């Protein structure tokens, strides 16, 4: 019976977790003890099976132990971005009906947004912290809410929901995605198999643990393999290479934005040996792909993932197998099909909706029958909402979100294709395209561009450049130049918000 706790290696001689900020090194036996002790504390304060526990913590040992102990106690972990505002916390706490909100030490006296949100719904609040003297993660309930002391210590079951995450909500209200121990451990195994992870591997975690990318690929899968996870509080380009070298990391997984930041940042005198670099969560342009491989002397493997699939669905394989820039590779432990509107598979090379089936896929959204009916076919395939096709080798090529495709007089244009063409210009740092209304064609192509520092190009010059790469009807009719692209907390450009901002004539405010 696979559960998160039972999937953590019991034989590895490597450290499980290294915390650079404190130089704390946690062995696998110590990690298991920390989880077990914290689980007993959760039981003592009244966390029972299926109790949702919202975790508003940064990447640290407290998050790791809180998350794994909640799942071990048959609770439902609901990680939240600790940088949320009060109103955002209120939405998520109310949506999952949290029984407990876990916050850092001092958050209650400081009146932190998560604490104020919990108070609005009468939800219990507990502070957690690492006690170096006692060698444990401590838990103290400061606001009791509806908890009742004295629950039993539980043993998790494979079909228990261990995790609830929300979709990004870029096209409407965020949907709650329940993921069972079985879903999660299947993905963990798929990732280990895809990248041949062993206890000799060490990964440097640059993605937040409240996001499925960081939690599954960056953290949980390495624990299954017996490898080591190096966990900084957050990504810092200035600290990356120092930590990467000091702790002898040999791979990392990130979104394209982080890869681009590393390419722009000062490099160490000698690039350390890197077994592979993984890219996921948004499209990686071929330009960035080649720059990464040339600069860091390592194979770049682009993957494709969704929260509903407990993260990974496809990936380019390790050498000597073929990896193809511009594709997201092959199905990894899942069945991938390209379907038409009626749920039938289309011919090889034809475009349709990328759809998947596998043990890692959620059985459905919480309290959203309409979305469930629309998202699953009668044969059990989950419709991703992404348009794409398979090439002659079966590698998946994503051509865009179906709802984001640009329809110019009946011609369907992939915004990703336009993004890549613009991004290949030597003066362009980032580019995102989108539909703009057209009286003649219904829609035409618009684009927003961030130039590289010190570089210049005119709108007409960029249009001419794109026109040499793409058909005339795909060339943007209008290009906005801006200093910043609105992004999610994980660094994914928010195409819809960029479009709305540009079309309003506003400039996005720079992130502080």
TrEMBL record:
Q: Which UniProt keywords apply?
A: ATP-binding, Ligase, Nucleotide-binding
For whether the record's keyword set contains Acyltransferase, the answer is no
The protein's GO terms of the molecular function aspect are:
ATP binding; medium-chain fatty acid-CoA ligase activity
Domain AMP-binding enzyme C-terminal, first and last residues per copy: 417-492
Q: Which InterPro entries match?
A: AMP-bd_C, AMP-bd_C_sf, AMP-binding_CS, AMP-dep_synth/lig_dom, ANL_N_sf, Pcs60-like
AMP-dependent synthetase/ligase domain location is 10-365
Which Pfam families does the record associate with it? AMP-binding (PF00501), AMP-binding_C (PF13193)
Determine the domain of life of the protein's source: Eukaryota
In the UniProt record, does the keyword ATP-binding occur? yes
Report TM segments.
none
What processes does the entry annotate via GO biological process terms?
A: fatty acid metabolic process
User: Which SUPFAM superfamilies is this protein grouped with?
Assistant: Acetyl-CoA synthetase-like (SSF56801)
Gene3D superfamilies, alphabetically?
Answer: 3.30.300.30, N-terminal domain of ligase-like
Family indicated by similarity:
Belongs to the ATP-dependent AMP-binding enzyme family.
Name of the protein: Acetyl-CoA synthetase-like protein
Q: Which organism is it from?
A: Choiromyces venosus 120613-1
Q: What is the lineage of its organism?
A: Eukaryota, Fungi, Dikarya, Ascomycota, Pezizomycotina
């Amino acid at each position: 019976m696979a559960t998160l706790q039972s999937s953590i290696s019991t034989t590895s001689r490597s450290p499980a977790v290294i915390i650079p900020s404190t130089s704390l090194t946690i062995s696998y036996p110590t990690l298991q003890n920390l989880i077990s002790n914290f689980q007993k504390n959760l039981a003592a304060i009244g966390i029972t099976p299926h109790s949702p526990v919202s975790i508003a913590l940064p990447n640290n040992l407290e998050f790791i132990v809180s998350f794994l102990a909640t799942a071990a106690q048959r609770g439902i972990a609901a990680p939240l971005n600790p940088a949320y505002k009060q109103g955002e916390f209120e939405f998520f706490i109310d949506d999952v009906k949290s029984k407990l909100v876990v916050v850092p030490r001092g958050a209650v006296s400081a009146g932190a947004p998560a604490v104020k949100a919990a108070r609005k719904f009468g939800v219990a609040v507990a502070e957690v912290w690492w006690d170096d003297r006692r060698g444990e993660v401590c838990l103290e309930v400061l606001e009791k809410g509806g908890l009742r002391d004295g629950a039993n210590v539980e043993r998790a079951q494979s079909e228990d929901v261990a995790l609830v995450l929300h979709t990004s909500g870029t096209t409407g209200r965020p949907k709650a995605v329940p993921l069972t121990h079985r879903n999660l451990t299947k993905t963990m195994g798929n990732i280990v198999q895809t990248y041949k992870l062993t206890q000799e591997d060490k990964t440097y975690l640059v993605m937040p643990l409240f996001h499925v990318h960081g939690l599954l690929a960056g953290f949980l899968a390495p624990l299954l393999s017996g490898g080591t996870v190096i966990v900084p509080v957050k990504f810092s380009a200035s600290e990356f290479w120092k930590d990467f070298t000091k702790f002898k990391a040999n791979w990392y997984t990130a979104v394209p934005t982080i890869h681009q930041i590393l390419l722009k940042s000062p490099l160490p005198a000698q690039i350390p040996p890197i077994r592979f670099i993984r890219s996921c969560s948004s499209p990686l342009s071929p330009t960035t792909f080649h720059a990464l491989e040339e600069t860091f002397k390592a194979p770049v493997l682009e993957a494709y993932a969704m929260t509903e699939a407990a993260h990974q669905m496809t990936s380019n394989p390790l050498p000597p197998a073929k990896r193809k820039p511009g594709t997201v590779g092959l199905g990894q432990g899942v069945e991938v099909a390209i379907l038409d509107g009626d749920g039938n598979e289309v011919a090889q090379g034809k475009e349709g909706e990328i759809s998947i089936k596998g043990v890692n896929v959620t059985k459905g959204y919480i309290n959203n029958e309409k979305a469930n009916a629309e998202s699953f076919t009668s044969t059990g395939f989950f419709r991703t909402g992404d348009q794409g096709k398979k090439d002659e080798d079966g590698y998946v090529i994503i051509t865009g979100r179906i709802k984001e495709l640009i329809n110019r007089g009946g011609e369907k244009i992939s915004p990703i294709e336009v993004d890549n063409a613009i991004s290949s210009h030597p003066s362009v740092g980032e580019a995102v395209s989108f539909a703009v209304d057209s009286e003649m064609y219904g829609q035409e192509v618009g684009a927003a561009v961030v130039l590289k520092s010190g570089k210049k190009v005119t709108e007409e010059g960029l249009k001419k450049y794109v026109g040499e790469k793409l058909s005339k009807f795909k060339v943007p009719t209008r290009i906005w130049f801006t200093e910043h692209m609105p992004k999610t907390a994980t660094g994914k450009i928010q195409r819809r918000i960029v479009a709305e901002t540009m079309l309003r004539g506003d400039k996005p405010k720079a992130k502080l």
